[in-house]
Design goal:
By secondary structure, the chain is an alpha/beta fold. It has 9 helices and 19 strands. Bound molecules: flavin-adenine dinucleotide (FAD).
Length: about 400
């Protein structure tokens, strides 16, 4: 990582056009586009990208297999080249400071001010409560066949049932291996139709609770431990089997990292698939605009199913929308200023005609009317002078062009 870009804290407290909260693929793509649009951008990031445990990023055209940290370092360097700045820290609060901007508070006590916010803080994956899963997360304990399926193709793959989508997950993973076992664990029993589908696809269904996982000498997943209620009626459990397993697919709880938006009234909402809640997201429209004017969200924070390339694309879309919004605001302000400037001298809409005193302003008193007359006279004199200068220059140039007799 470029040392200069790693943490350019200078100016963190001045007001930026945009503060990007989260420097993953969504945030860095947004920062790149905003930097290229000549916007001042500060990316605040606490360095916990979701896919950090994975060996490589898959399915991102042009970057296939790139280690996640390498992709982010490249992204930082690219955005930094266009002026984006970076600040290490965790945003803990966000408030609207005035009609035109926001103030962020960081865990270290620092503050950041910005006219617009791009929230790209991702989500946290909560693993099912089975001992041993955390140590294998992202390597042999997996959530997504598109991210990891190819790497474990043809291997014995288990699906840890924790909810109604487990059957769907098992049928999906079957594309990557002929040896798939659905561990019912705490999930529901498949209904008749699902049972038929699983049987037709040759997927084994294992009843009982998963109590742990085994690893081999290299620390890789080798088996899944199953237990059933003890037959003595004591309420205890007895281990019934250890089934070979090279990869275990799980459904993690997907929670948007958005607690810092509460002061703005932005609260994550449940995200469902086929009527089952799979996580939470910050509601946003197709450009990423949230319910709070001036705040955009992109990537996994706004859409839990987004992969890296989708998160990056969402960051690009949001950045373009933010730039358009800032441009609209700046144009409004410029027009107001321009009109005020014209009005101050008494210039009417007709070039060459000024108005002053009660003719232009009914509330003007004698001294105000007199002052307006003076302002208008000075403006008229300046206008005449400008015109005469233009004409003199034109005449002088024409004179220079005359042939010498
Ligand atoms: C194990 C695993 C493997 C994966 N493999 C692939 C794959 O191969 N291909 C693929 O396309 N997708 C893959 N994904 C999905 C991928 O991780 C996401 O699509 C991607 O990370 C979403 O990008 P993002 O920018 O929205 O969020 P993230 O990449 O998670 O980035 C969010 C950033 O915001 C920061 N942040 C959060 N809150 C705050 C705060 N309050 N203040 C400051 N900073 C904050 C975090 O530290 C983090 O750096 C994988 C996911 C996992 C879990």
């Amino acid at each position: 990582m470029n040392g200069q870009l790693a943490d350019s804290q200078n100016g963190a407290d001045s007001r930026h056009d945009v503060a990007v909260i989260g420097g993953g693929p969504a945030g860095l793509s947004g920062a790149l586009v905003l930097g290229r649009a000549r916007r001042s951008v500060l990316v605040v990031d606490d360095g916990q990208p979701r896919n950090a445990p994975a060996e490589g990023v898959h399915g991102y055209l042009g970057h296939e297999g790139t280690p996640p940290a390498e992709l982010l370092a490249t992204g930082r360097a690219e955005a930094g080249r266009y002026g984006a700045r970076f600040r290490t820290g965790t945003v803990t609060d966000a408030v609207r400071e005035d009609p035109h901007g926001f103030r962020l508070t960081l865990a270290d006590g620092g503050t950041v001010r910005a006219r617009r916010l791009l929230v790209t803080s991702g989500l946290t994956d909560e693993l099912p409560d089975v001992p041993g899963l955390a140590g294998l997360w992202g390597r042999d304990v997996l959530h997504c066949p598109y991210c990891h399926g190819w790497e474990v193709r043809g291997q014995p793959i288990g699906i840890l049932g924790t909810g109604p989508l487990a059957v769907h997950q098992a049928l999906m993973w079957r594309q990557w291996s002929e040896r798939v076992t659905l561990f019912l664990h705490t999930g529901p029993e498949p209904d008749d139709e699902q049972g038929e589908q699983l049987a037709a696809r040759g997927i084994t269904v294992a009843a009982g609770e998963v109590t742990g996982v085994d690893t081999d000498g290299d620390g890789r997943l080798s088996g899944v431990r199953l237990a059933s209620p003890a037959p003595d009626g004591s309420g205890g459990r007895q281990e019934t089997a250890v089934l070979p397993c090279r990869a275990l697919a799980v459904a993690t709880g997907l929670t948007a990292r958005a607690g810092f938006l509460a002061s703005l009234g932005l609260v994550p909402q449940p995200q469902e698939v086929n009527g089952t809640v799979i996580g939470s997201r910050i509601p946003a429209d197709a450009t990423g605009l949230t319910e709070v004017p001036g705040v955009w969200a992109a990537g996994n924070a706004a859409q839990v199913t987004e992969q890296v390339i989708g998160a990056a694309a969402a960051g690009v879309r949001a950045a373009a929308a933010i730039n358009a919004d800032l441009t609209a605001e700046e144009t409004r302000l410029a027009v107001a200023e321009w009109r005020a400037g014209r009005r101050a001298t008494g210039l009417t809409e007709v070039p060459g005609v000024w108005a002053a005193g009660n003719a232009a302003q009914v509330t003007e008193q004698v001294i105000g009317a007199a002052a307006a007359g003076v302002r208008a006279a000075a403006a008229i004199n300046a206008d005449l002078t400008a015109e005469e200068t233009r004409l003199a220059v034109a005449e002088w140039r024409a004179g220079r062009r005359l042939p010498v007799p």
